[in-house]
Protein 1
Amino acid sequence: MQINVKYSLSLTLLISAIFASTDCNAWGQNGHRVVGKIAESHISENTKAALIPYLNGESLAQISTWPDEMRSAPGDFWQKKSSRWHYINADDNATFSFDHDHTKHKESVTNILEGIHYSIKVLKDDKSSLAAKQFSLRFLVHLVGDSHQPFHAGRAEDRGGNRVKVSFFNQQTNLHSLWDTKLVENENLSFTEYAQFINTNNSELISEYLHSTPTSWLEESHNLALQIYKSTDENISYDYIFTNTPIVKTRLQQAGIRLAGLLNTLFDPTNKKSKMALTQQIKK
């Protein structure tokens, strides 16, 4: 029997990519695109214009999944260093901070908080190349989403819920994957439908969301993760979905609005209404 070598190699690479990306993808593709889609409706016209050269014809929703798609790409960065950009594991009583020295180069980033601040620094720096800014925008869009998934700030001992086995309607999975994908996909909505359903123009709520920093987003996620650890049984069913789906929707909504606020802060100095309260956390 003859084997199509080209097809076999492509299939092998596809399978490898699937398995390589299961540990710390946040929200799955749909969730990330929901975040990007919501952000698109809250960025200013000046920000939209400023983003054009960095988006290269794509939307925020389209680029939101790029860092996950690239994790099986060749090269030392993608194979050995990029995965640590997606999470920050901590003990139960931990507080979050980051080392500014780790944000000087993309290779020196050790966690999601440093990855966010590295990306911000590159986008703020007029000396950054177009390629560097395109890279950083794609990561920033993705990491804002990641930072709102509770188990990207979970416990190190179980790798952010990856080692906590659960059964979702008799399908074996883990706690991280449950929150990444299954609770989102259970709604049976496209990302555009999901974004439309949970988006908001409530000015008071938006103001509350924007009065925050990347550190506080991860602290929120960490505290949620600790609550979820305690309330999760091995067998997941309707009552769990009823209780936790509103949390998923809130976190996606917050991520989209905060992403827009962050982009407005970076790209539209005239926009006062929807800028983030980042103050001293953003440094060149």
Protein 2
Amino acid sequence: MFEFITDEEERGQVGIGTLIVFIAMVLVAAIAAGVLINTAGFLQSKSQETGQQSSKQVSNRLQEVATVGNVTTNGEIDIVNVTVTQAPGAGEIDIHNATVTWIGPTGTYQLQSTTQNFSDNGALTDGDKLYSYESVKNAAGSENVLNDADDRLNLVFDVSGPTNGDVLNEGDEVTIKINTMSGATTSIRFTVPESLGQKEAVEL
């Protein structure tokens, strides 16, 4: 006996096949959409993180307020005091973790921070490359962190001995580069005046 398939049965089979294909396409599209959404979210997160890091590298800088040199009786500068504050738009800056480079007439030196007051006794050992810091004004009472636009910090560079190599004489040029933890760099340049006689201190 031959079984005849009617037009209605054929249409039903075709409809079921179309439905299966449609469901498969929907599932594939859903999976693809999920992957795209996850990728877009990841890229957005990375771009925000990169943008924040780039912003910190630009904004988390120090700003020079004043630079003063102490003049010895021999007409030389033995100590340089640099007062700094936050640059406009900067966040919290920890000077203790900053990288400081001194570029002077006798060479380039990477300096390490110390809380020693050079003016106390000058007890530095040969080979030390140091700078000290002291809080001038800090609303939060921190000795090494600038976290307010009104905060002031004094960086002290003893150039009379092993710290930076030699005293500064008239006409000497110096560049101090301060690189904060966020990667922002501040360059402070000055030239010693041509006349230091009869002065106890001079603005640089």
Protein 3
Amino acid sequence: MDLIKKISQFERDFIKVNESFPLLNYSWNNKSKSWVIKGDLDICDVKGVYWNTFNIAIVVPEGYPFCVPMVFEISQILPRDKDWHISDEGICCIDIEHNLIVMSRKGIQMNDFIEKKIYPYFANQLYKLEKHKYAGEEYGHETEGIIQYYNENLKIQSLDSIIVFIEIIIKNNDLTRNRLCPCNSGKKIKKCHETSIELIKTLGKVKILDDLKKLKIHYLKTQSQKISNEL
């Protein structure tokens, strides 16, 4: 009796990808232990008017769905520049790294990932090529992106306050719902930053510590620059 080949979750999920994006196909790369999606991605506006086509590659690690796929633009339409959120090698920065990590912890669905992350990225790039600006708010690069992530999730603008907040999360394993919130609002965590704290924790201690280090360096540089300007 022939053994029935077990179909992976990626292969099952790709059926829906193929329905939505028929010009994309996949193969398994045994060397990198990853699925590789290649093909053309047609971009249209909200009215369905065709704009352009990108030739892309998406590398999906073996750990799918708990992973962050890597996206490449092969067609060379976009300028290779960090201000365009793309590297010299064509690697596309489709969102702030932290948002992608949180998404991967929960598990992604490939068709949703393309529809909600990859497709809007390329549509917005075409908009910038035409209008010389992005349609929405641009996310920051490198340390600026880290600051933006914590600004948006904690609703705290002061960098030194963000640093203190993160240090408390790292050092205190007893941030229970009924404790006072680290933001000094006077409210209990459950009525203040509970969701934000749990979201940050999903990044993992190594990532949070790395963020903390970069934020402290950035803060010291900005303070030094401020003092120099006042002299």
Protein 4
Amino acid sequence: MSIALVAGGTSGIGLATARRLQQRGYDVHVTGRGKERLDDVASSDPELTGHQADGGDAEAMAALAGTLGTVDVLVVSLSGAEGMGPIDALDLAVLRRAFDAKFWAHLTTIQAVLPHLAADGSITLLSAITARAAMAGTAGIGALNAAIEALVKPLAVELAPRRVNAVSPGVVDTAWWSGFPAEMREGFFAQTAASIPARRVATADDVAEVVTLAATNRNLTGTVLEADGGARLVSLG
């Protein structure tokens, strides 16, 4: 059975992707930093195998990959909620922490798993619309997601015939927004749904469907797939 590893697969888009890969017949392993979320996955999705490991910990990720044998599909769905804010007040220490949590963790996971990745395997990364959209207050987090996307093309060439892609979501109703007051969050979702061409805020599974396509379609490589409901075509600022 082919093996899929979803780093950051205990919630949101990562968990939705893990479920879709399992439905396609993969033996799916997910990582998470917190035992509580891993316990939740063990209860809700016993067909998935959870591992407590930090994507930014090279030794832990390499050790885990070594126990799996050959990894056919690697999905890196690691993120954080920091790095936003106007440039004149942006705390650069917080932005560095955001880069550690996402960009450096993506890169660390790729390096750690690469020796165990199948010769025809795939790597799929998660960025976000802020990499290209011109929204005030997103210079920091936009640079972070742009850095993720900048990995895709050179790695697709360097690691060929392994495939490397990324998926760029727009506004998605996930736990990422849990730190915002409910009234603010709901108002923003309503405003977004009214303004973007898709006329709805995406679910985690909407994006997971695209991630699964990128991870499994043997003719896709070096591509950033935009799964943003058309948000990049309008102003969300």
